[in-house]
Amino acid sequence: MERITFGQIPKGMVERLMAIENYINESTLDLQLLELMRLRVAQINKCAYCIDMHYKELKHTGETELRMSTLSVWNETSFFTEKEKAVLLFTEALTEISKKEVSAEIFKSLTKFFTTEEICNLTFAISQLNTWTRLVRTFKFTAGNYQVNE
């Protein structure tokens, strides 16, 4: 059961979070890559609502079932590009920053594929994703009801 419903969230809070989402979505970062990151953060943070949401969003972008079902073990497959692997490694390190540092090697791998601005936006996106999962898990939003906006 939800502890706090979407309608009970203080006025302005969701709007401000959505302004950040809009900024990230309007950046030069690829939407499918962003959704891969979002799903991976949701998996790490064990957020059922967010996993449902980003699975559906990824499917909507045309992502394959094989890649979605193996995302949690991406580093054991050959289904992801070097660019995606660099981002997923960074996503995991930043999400679990209390367990492992974002090493110089991880950061340098990003510079092969992204500009400084894009690395800033990747960092912002991952931070935002972690904010969402913490809110949703605390409030106990119900998984399964999310619908992709066409």
Overall description:
The relative contact order is 0.19. The chain has helices spanning 13-25, 31-44, 48-60, 65-69, 82-95, 104-111, 116-139. It has 7 helices and no strands. The model has no long low-confidence stretch (mean pLDDT 96). The chain is mainly α and 150 residues long. It has one domain (11-139): AhpD-like.
Brief descriptors of the model:
single chain, 61% helix, globular, mainly alpha, 150 residues
CATH architecture type:
Up-down Bundle
Distance between the termini: 28 Å
How does the overall form come out from the CA principal axes?
Answer: globular
Order of helices and strands: HHHHHHH
Name the CATH superfamily assignment. AhpD-like
The CATH topology: AhpD-like
Q: What summary fits the major beta sheet? A: none
Provide mean pLDDT, rounded.
Answer: 96
Structural class category = mainly alpha
Overall tally of structural domains: 1
E-strand count: 0
Binned strand content? under 5%
Calculate Rg over CA atoms: 15 Å
InterPro entries: AhpD-like, AhpD_core, CMD-like
Protein name: Alkylhydroperoxidase AhpD family core domain-containing protein
GO molecular function: peroxiredoxin activity
Domain Carboxymuconolactone decarboxylase-like: 15-92
